[in-house]
Amino acid sequence: MTSMPPPEITLRRVAIVGTGLIGTSIAMAASRAGATVTGWDLDPVVLATAAAHSGLGLAASLEAAVADADLVVVATPIAAVAASVTAVLRLAPTALVTDAASVKTAVIDNVRAAVGPEDLARFVPGHPMGGSERSGPEHASASVVDGIVWVLAPTDETDLVRIDALEAWVEGLGARVVRLDPERHDRLVAMVSHLPQVASTSLMGVAATEEADEPDILLLAAGGFRDLTRLAASNPGLWSDILVANRRQVASAIDLFVERLGALREQILGEDTAAVESVFDAAKGARLGLATKPTVRSGVAVWQIEIPDEPGALARITAVVGEGGVNIEDLQIVHSPEGGRGTVHLTVAAPTSDAAGDVLRRAGYDPTRLA
Amino acid sequence: MTSMPPPEITLRRVAIVGTGLIGTSIAMAASRAGATVTGWDLDPVVLATAAAHSGLGLAASLEAAVADADLVVVATPIAAVAASVTAVLRLAPTALVTDAASVKTAVIDNVRAAVGPEDLARFVPGHPMGGSERSGPEHASASVVDGIVWVLAPTDETDLVRIDALEAWVEGLGARVVRLDPERHDRLVAMVSHLPQVASTSLMGVAATEEADEPDILLLAAGGFRDLTRLAASNPGLWSDILVANRRQVASAIDLFVERLGALREQILGEDTAAVESVFDAAKGARLGLATKPTVRSGVAVWQIEIPDEPGALARITAVVGEGGVNIEDLQIVHSPEGGRGTVHLTVAAPTSDAAGDVLRRAGYDPTRLA
After folding, report:
1. Inter-chain residue contact A214 with B188, CB threshold 8 Å
2. Which of A118, A153, A248, A326 has the fewest CB atoms within 10 Å of its CB?
3. Which residues between 105 and 134 in chain B have a beta carbon less than 8 angstroms from any beta carbon of chain A?
4. Is the pLDDT of residue B126 over 90?
């Protein structure tokens, strides 16, 4: 007598609720991986554009979209996510439901307040940390998902088998899963994503307010100011919703930042040059260390290569790598703070790392693998 | 009877004191404009490197360098500028003396305390707002000066004829003169240069401290975090001197920033989404306006180009540009705060900008000039 295999969760029929850039990109990655994908969006124009761009099946209603789904991915705007997840859990009583919101505890708390424990067990909160500066389904691409960090932030109530099933499915799309406690996820993104946004906007605010009295101020704004205020041009509606949804963690991150600014202020005013220098030294060390770490788009390898500073030098490197059939994921000309030039950081997908190293060495370069 | 022409100040024999990147770059721009240039540096290796790289005349001593000069440009490290200016005013009793320090009132106060009013009248404080992330005379170039904002910050005691003469000379080098009261200069650079540096270092400090407990934190750090912390890798010794020299203005700028962070914090914690959105709206408008202003890190042009995400795509771009004889100064694959791919920012020397745009368009790209 043979024992029965454990019940398997198959995630072949997928519904996407909210077909903006990220929803449609996930739809396209899922299709590529062999899933049958149906989409729905509150805005019929967005839905029609998504269907035309991606080939996903166009549902007539939310009910129709999720009726037969094994997996429903909710990718609606943050303010609507909890309500969408709740509705889907009710409409599709056996489906695994996940979301793509960039804040987790607020969504989970609202869903928990609205559904019973059996439904809550089927909800696996997620955060695919990809995207694009563009928005809208017309800019979606399966490649948006390639190699990104895709956080799964299950609750105590989440069914373990479903977490494993979703993790396998997400990795099948080409993303890298990182499991984090929801609180911890929210704390970490508050520091490395939400605080930079707040800092950038506030810095731009200081300069813009002064500009009324000092029309020359922005004339003096150099590259550093531009780097720091680039984020200030982000979507205000999107960001106000995210920050309010993650308000406690964002407030704590601001507090840590303000504390540090205050300490540095006192050292500067106290003419304690040595203390200021040591703060800068520590930050410099950490920032140089960051350059050697993979970005959010993990599953990558970083090679450091020295090149001569002359026309065509970069062309030779990229040609060598391209002819080797390796796709360059990212490339940065790195200037050390002490000067120097002609050091390139070349990022490639991890599986092609050895190939990249080989073709570079064969072409006479001496690449060093950083990450 | 004809009237005598007014006495003219000619600035043809130029001495550079401190031949690092900025001093040597000014020397090269001055040579290009027809001046005879002599250099001196406390460090004989730096001086020899500057002479070999730029062709400036190598003086045996500070005295010899400035003896016959019409104009002396002091480009020593900030902590040494006031003493250098004072020494030069004494050694060259008729020369016009200017400096290149990024903080003005501290330098002026120290010079004023050390010299008499006749000498003070010959000192025209300046701040060429160019430079490079590189340092050292071997990276100097006349193009560092091209199109930059060069602040002149005269005092009440400065001789007006000499201000005009220096302004004409600076514009003859290809820079753009902005006259500012020294206090006002220090206030404005505190906000658009020194505060961004402090903010970047403090943000990196927050993340680095948390990293000890949260090793995943930097894994979640996307492009926005990298943008905001790039400055944190700057030279600690240089920056601690600058910040302490401009300490009162820097402290005020930090206060304005912290006040704004605090207000935003309260709006976020108070769930005032509309207020947060309006703060973000204002900052976004100001940031988009900034994109239309010339950048201080002049001498360069930035082109944005969309590229397909496939092996060889970057190779084609760099090959096209290299074959056009244009040297790529910097190249970045730009990822939005949420990720994204396939947009390249290509930085080239300003004089080669049109050539770069032309070769890219001829090769079928649709480049957009950003700066």
Report:
1. yes
2. A118
3. 129, 133-134
4. yes
Residue A131's pLDDT band, with cuts at 50, 70 and 90, is low
What pTM did the predictor assign? 0.79
Q: Which residues pair with B73 in a beta bridge?
A: B16, B98
Among A residues 293-352, those touching chain B with beta carbons less than 8 Å apart: 293-298, 309-319, 321-323, 325-333, 335, 337-341
Tokens linked to B90: 């004494």
SS3 B324: coil
Where is pLDDT greater, at B264 or B315?
A: B264
CA distances from A23 to A34, A73, A134, A145, A265 (A): 17, 8, 13, 10, 44
Q: Return the residue in B338, B343, B359 with the most chain A beta carbons within 10 A, the one to mutate for interface testing.
A: B338
Contacting B residues, span 168-187, partner chain A, CB-CB under 8 Å: 178, 180, 184, 187
Kind and range of the H or E run holding B255: helix B247-269
CB within 8 Å of A138: residues ≥ 6 apart: A49, A53
CA distance A310 to B202: 36
Q: What is the tens place of the pLDDT at every residue in B38-58?
A: 999 999 999 999 999 999 999
Which of A177, A143, A166, A178 minimizes the C-alpha distance to A29? A143
Domains within chain A, CATH numbers bracketed: 13-180 (3.40.50.720), 185-265 (1.10.3660.10), 300-369 (3.30.70.260)
CB contacts of B328 in chain A (<8 Å) are: 311, 314, 333
Of B207, B226, B285, Cβ closest to residue A191: B207
Model confidence at B226, pLDDT cuts 50, 70, 90, reads confident
Chain A to chain B Cβ contacts (< 8 Å): 447
Interface probe, candidates B138, B143, B265, B323, chain A, greatest A C-beta count within 10 A? B265
3-state SS of chain A? CCCCCCCCCCCCEEEEECCCHHHHHHHHHHHHCCCEEEEECCCHHHHHHHHHHHCCEECCCHHHHHCCCCEEEECCCHHHHHHHHHHHHHHCCCCEEEECCCCCHHHHHHHHHHCCHHHHHCEECEEECCCCCCCCHHHCCHHHCCCCEEEECCCCCCCHHHHHHHHHHHHHCCCEEEECCHHHHHHHHHHHHHHHHHHHHHHHHHHHHHHCCCCCHHHHCCHHHHHHHHHHHCCHHHHHHHHHHCHHHHHHHHHHHHHHHHHHHHHHHCCCHHHHHHHHHHHHHHHHHHHCCCCCCCCEEEEEEECCCCCCHHHHHHHHHHHCCCCEEEEEEEEECCEEEEEEEEEEEHHHHHHHHHHHHHCCCCCEECC
Half-sphere exposure of A248 (CA within 13 A, CB side): 7
